[in-house]
Amino acid sequence: MKLKLAVLPGDGIGPEIMEQGLAVAKAICEKFGHELSYEYAICGADAIDKVGDPFPEDTFNLCLNSDAVLFASVGDPKFDNNPNAKVRPEQGLLAMRKKLGLFANIRPVTTFDCLVHKSPLKDELVRGADFICIRELTGGMYFGEKYEADDKAYDTNFYTRPEIERILKVGFEYAMKRNKHLTVVDKANVLASSRLWRKIAQEMAPQYPEVTTDYMYVDNAAMRMIQEPRFFDVMVTENTFGDILTDEGSCITGSMGLLPSASTGEHTPVFEPIHGSWPQAKGLNIANPLAQILSVAMLFEYFDLKAEGSLIREAVNASLDQNVRTPEIQVEGGAKYGTKEVGAWIVDYIKNK
Ligand code: IPM
Ligand code: MN
Questions:
Q1: Are residues 177 and 308 in the same domain?
Q2: How far is the CA of 243 from the centre of ligand 2 (A)?
């Protein structure tokens, strides 16, 4: 097929990991006879520095006119400790989500057996944990009415029925494709918005009789995730809860550098690692490119190109098995590989397959 990508490397380690993700996309397209074209666009702090806007109109138009967006990361410490900064790199990410209507953020929490020892949890708890968090991405407190003054500030956790229905539908459908267990995470004992979520979920559940649906308060879910991560199959939740729970999910697997994500909705889908821009590592060739590379696998899978996705996953697993790993997951005394070397190894694996 013909595949046109918008490539948004962003800030920090973004450009380095993107180089490897793109190289993998190219190798796969060559191997399977797909016609790949791509164009770069700016976003985040890079775009603020260049044009004063973290998600410029040109970038938006390129995204709209592409089949998929491959995104790396945004964020720069020079904005973090300045509460008076008028524009922030993260606003670029939020603008992209909103303008592309990316209401469903799919974040798989997958453990790799060979990395279980890196998890802060006990081996027997975490081995085999494998679930998907579906995070609502264009509503809730992130986008509800805000007020900010010296002595008073608020955010509004605003949701409407159609917004809740469409994300729950994604949750139920993922559960149908997987082990048919959906956990709806909310705070219905306190929050009105959560009560609406729960009510709608209860109305929808009978349409999916094969799915075991349970309802869990977010505080309890946070606890359950570390006590018994294997309990979960598919979890669906609102924007803020999903943000927090997926960071927790990423660290139980042993490395945040390994988790990809997909954001889908009304317009072009976006594929990106769940980690941030790790500015301290910029240019050092130490960032793990696997989350970006696995985001490329999710991209192909989105277009139903399963063999392409599988080959990427196979190459990633092979690299881990053969200790071709970036420093944060390298075994003691193992050979040293940087971002580039890991990427090149995976590209070679794909070419030689
Ligand atoms: C994420 C990030 C973003 C979020 C930030 C960078 C705005 O933490 O994608 O999880 O809070 O959604
Ligand atoms: Mn987050």
A1: no
A2: 4
The two structure tokens encoding residue 167: 């994300």
Q: Comparing 52-56, 314-318, 325-329, which segment has the lowest mean pLDDT?
A: 325-329
Ranking 8-12, 261-265, 327-331 by mean pLDDT, the lowest is 327-331
Catalytic residues: 142, 187, 219, 243, 247
Provide the domain limits for residue 118.
107-255
Place of tokens 């979520």: 197
Burial of 276 (0-12, 13-18, 19+ CB in 10 A): middle
Nearest to 40 by CA among 66, 8, 69, 4: 8
Tell me the CA–centroid distance for residue 243 and ligand 1, in Å. 7
Q: Has residue 162 been placed in a domain?
A: yes
Cβ < 6 Å from ligand 1: which residues?
A: 90, 93, 243
Rounded CA separation 190/183 (Å): 18
pLDDT single digits (tens) 109-148: 998 888 888 889 999 999 999 999 999 999 999 999 999 9
**Residue whose C-alpha is closest to residue 171's, from 104, 232, 242, 223:** 104
Ion ligand 2 — residues with CB < 5 Å: 243
What domain count does the chain have? 2
CA of 244 to the centre of ligand 2 (A): 6
Task: Note the pTM of the prediction, 2 decimals.
Answer: 0.94
Report the largest interatomic distance among the alpha carbons of the chain, rounded to a whole angstrom: 63
Q: 116 and 209 in one domain? A: yes
SS3 82: coil
Residue 86 CA to residue 238 CA, distance in Å, equals: 27
